[in-house]
Amino acid sequence: MSVNFLGILIDLDLHYIAPETLGNDAPDSRGSLRKLWWPKVMTDPGLFNATLLISASHQASITSMRRNRILIEELRCNTIASVNESMADPNPRLSDVNIGAILTLGSWEFYYGDPNAYKMHMSGLQTMIAMRGGLEKGRFQDILVKLILSVGHDLTLFAGIPPFFDTVRSSSGHASKLILPIADSLLPGFARLDKINLPRRSS
Q1: Residue 98 to residue 46: CA distance in whole angstroms
Q2: Residue 191, exposed/middle/buried by CB under 10 A (0-12, 13-18, 19+)?
Q3: For residue 127, is it within any domain?
Q4: Which of 62, 95, 113, 192 could pair covalently with 109 via S-S, beta carbons 3.0-4.6 A apart?
Q5: Does some domain include residue 201?
Q6: Domain region containing 180
Q7: How many CB atoms are located within 10 Å of the residue 34 CB?
C-alpha cells in the first residue's frame, strides 16, 4: 500500500466514516476522534488494520479498483491475526484497543461481511466488557462507550435483532446497561412482517 493511498484511507475514516458512526449527538466527533481515539488506533496493529479495513471497503464500494479487493482481504487477515495474538496474552486481551479492534471488525462484518460473524464478535465483546465490570463511568473512555453503543446497539435496529448493549442510562447519566447474550430473533414489528411471507430478494 502506497503512503498516498494510506493517507486517503485515514482521511476517509476521520472525515466521513467515524463521525457518522458516533452519530448526531457528538457535534465535535471529528475533533474527539482525532485527539482521543486515533492516537490509540496508531498504537495497535489490530485496531489500525481494522480501521483501514472499513475505509478500504467503503472505497471499494464506490470504485472498481481490483487492488482494493486484494487489500481488503489482506487487512482482514491482518486484523484477525493481531486480535488472536492479543487474545492469547492476558495483558492486552481486555485492553481498550483490542476491544476497539473487535468492535471495528464486527462493524465491518455487519456492513460488508457475514452477519453471523457480527453476532459472534458482539457476543465476545459482551463477555470481555463484563469482565471489565461493564460500561460504568471511568472504566472506558466516553468515546469508546459511544462506539460500543453505536455498533452493539444502533446497528441492531437496522438488522431487526435485539441489541447487545442497551442505551438505558443510570442515575449518574453516564453508564450504559450491558445486556446478556441474546437469542437470534426478530424485533416484534419485523416478526409480524416475516409471518406475512413477503417476497424476498434472492441473494
Answers
A1: 7
A2: exposed
A3: yes
A4: 113
A5: no
A6: 3-195
A7: 14
CA distance 162 to 27: 28
* Cα four-point dihedral sign 99, 101, 103, 105: negative
What pairs with residue 165 in β-bridges? 178
> pLDDT tens-digit profile of 60-106?
777 666 667 788 899 999 999 999 999 999 888 999 999 999 999 99
- How do residues 143-192 score in pLDDT, each as one tens digit? 888 889 889 988 888 888 889 987 654 444 444 555 543 333 333 444 44
> CA angle 84-166-102, nearest 5°?
15
Nearest 5 degrees, angle CA 81-CA 35-CA 123?
Answer: 40
Q: In total, how many domains does the chain have?
A: 1
Query: What does the alpha-carbon distance between residue 18 and residue 14 come to, in Å, rounded to a whole number?
Result: 6
Locate the DSSP E strands across the chain: 165-169, 176-178
Task: Specify if 149 maps to a domain.
Answer: yes
Amino acid found at 88: A
Question: Does residue 200 lie in a domain region?
Answer: no
Q: Which three cell numbers stand for residue 93?
A: 486481551
